């Protein structure tokens, strides 16, 4: 099935909400070409914890959210190289749907830069984010790619 249209609720606590918001922010950056700092400010000042057009944005750990978005923006080339290297031979990063690509980018950054978060937590959280957006096989795809990346990044 296709991507869900509404804003999905975050399953867990503030860090889960941060991950979901970070994926949305990375998607917005890619679609609109906005810099990370303006997206972070927009989310912190106008979205996180707010109700917008009937959709409730959960309260998030703002520091963690900003780290995820900034980290993905600053390390985009390295992150994309990792993700591309974990894909099947006939797949390219450009072939991946933009929201799924954002999930992989944020998840990869967290695997690279947040050794304080257990690998299993990271993978499970981003599979949950994928389930919030997709009703098809993409959560399994996200799981497989992040699992491959975890074995490489967190040897």
Explain how this protein is built:
There is one protein chain. The protein is mostly helical. It has one domain (14-153): N-utilizing Substance Protein B Homolog, Chain A (Orthogonal Bundle). The chain has seven helices and two strands, in the order ααββααααα. It has helices spanning 14-32, 36-46, 62-74, 76-86, 98-113, 119-133, 138-153, and strands spanning 51-52, 55-56. The chain has a two-stranded antiparallel ribbon. Helix 1 packs parallel to helix 3 (62-74), helix 1 (14-32) packs across helix 5 and helix 2 runs antiparallel to helix 3 (62-74). It starts with 13 loop residues before the first helix and ends with a helix. The model is unreliable at 1-10 (pLDDT under 50).
Q: How would you briefly describe this protein structure?
A:
This protein is mainly α. It contains 7 helices and 2 strands, in the order ααββααααα.
Question: What is the alpha-carbon Rg in Å?
Answer: 14 Å
Mean pLDDT: 89
Query: Quick one: CATH class?
Result: Mainly Alpha
Number of domains: 1
pLDDT below 50 for ≥5 consecutive residues: which ranges? 1-10
Strand order of the largest sheet: 1-2
Fill in the keyword field for this structure:
155 residues, mainly alpha, N-utilizing Substance Protein B Homolog, Chain A, disordered N terminus
């Amino acid at each position: 099935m296709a991507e869900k249209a509404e804003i999905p609720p975050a399953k867990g606590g503030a860090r889960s909400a941060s991950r979901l918001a970070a994926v949305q922010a990375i998607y917005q950056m890619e679609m609109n070409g906005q810099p990370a700092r303006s997206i972070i400010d927009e989310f912190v000042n106008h979205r996180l914890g707010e109700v917008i057009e009937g959709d409730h944005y959960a309260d998030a750990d703002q520091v963690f959210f900003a780290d995820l978005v900034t980290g993905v923006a600053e390390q985009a080339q390295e992150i994309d190289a990792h993700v591309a290297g974990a894909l099947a031979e006939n797949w390219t990063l450009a072939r991946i749907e933009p929201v799924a690509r954002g999930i992989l980018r944020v998840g990869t950054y967290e695997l690279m830069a947040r050794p304080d978060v257990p690998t299993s937590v990271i993978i499970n959280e981003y599979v949950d984010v994928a389930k919030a957006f997709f009703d098809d096989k993409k959560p399994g795809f996200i799981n497989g790619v992040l699992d491959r990346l975890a074995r490489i990044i967190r040897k």
